[in-house]
Amino acid sequence: MRKFERGGTWRGRSVLLVPGLILVFWVLALAAKEFVKPGAKPARTYPAHDEHSNESVTVGVEPYDSAEKAQIFSVKWNEEGFLPIFLVVSNDGDQPISLAGMQAQLITSRREKLGAASNDDLYRRLSHISAGRSPYPLPFPRTKVKGAVGKKALDEIDAAQFTAKAVEPHSTQSGFLFFDVSGISSPLAGARFYLTGLRDGKGGDLLYFEIPFEK
After folding, report:
1. Tens-of-pLDDT digits for all 215 residues of the chain?
2. For residues 125, 131, 133 and 135, what is the CA-based torsion angle, rounded to 10 degrees?
3. Partners of 114 in the beta sheet?
4. Judgement on whether residues 130 and 25 belong to the same structural domain of the protein
């Protein structure tokens, strides 16, 4: 009788243990999830885009401002005060387009001009180090903020960012730009996205791209 009770107790514990283990493995799987950059579609297929048919270049943008979209990131950019915007540049012409001098800007409804954040801006925010603060008095060198950021976040930044320097003929380049919108409520309401500095195969400047967001 005792053996039966012991066996029954063990089976009962097993029934409770298995769901617990499944939950643990599920949490660990989520923690180990690697960032995967979204596949880019032709820029003209995005609701927010600006097409220059005479230059055969189209720029599309997609803000990742919702909780559903933000799930692709392990870093909670919204909580860190950054707005990720997916930038897509399509070249339908027969000559390459240079992006080496590209500059992106988000202008809010209050005419606040926000440039895309640099890697150091992102590292500093994630490590919560003030831009004007040094842990050591001069002339000692300042601590590199990159070293204070976890490897997973560093890998995500490298994989996510728009880094292309050119768009080959009949191809598309894409990636994320991050804008510091901390302290700005509803940054996209009435805002406009500007992209300048693109050059054609002969080195000529392309007309700037202007993309309004929904009011």
Report:
1. 544 455 555 455 555 555 554 444 444 444 456 889 999 999 999 999 999 999 999 999 999 999 999 999 999 999 999 999 999 999 999 999 999 999 999 999 999 999 999 999 999 999 876 555 444 444 444 445 666 788 999 999 999 999 999 999 999 999 999 999 998 989 999 999 999 999 998 999 999 999 999 75
2. 50
3. 106
4. no
Q: DSSP letter at 6?
A: H
**Amino acid in the structure at residue 159:** A
Q: Calculate the alpha carbon distances from 105 to 36, 180, 184, 210 in Å.
A: 25, 11, 15, 10
Q: What is the DSSP string of 19-64?
A: HHHHHHHHHHHHHTPPP-PPPPPPGGGSSEEEEETTTTEEEEEEE-
Strand-pair partners of 196: 103
Q: Are residue 25 and residue 104 in the same domain, yes or no?
A: no
Q: Residue 27: which domain range? A: 1-32
| Same domain as 103, residue 175 | yes
The answer to whether residues 21 and 102 belong to one domain is no
Domain count, the chain: 2
How many other C-beta atoms are found inside a 10 Å radius of the C-beta of residue 74?
Answer: 16
Non-local CB neighbours of 152 within 8 Å, separated by 6+ positions: 74
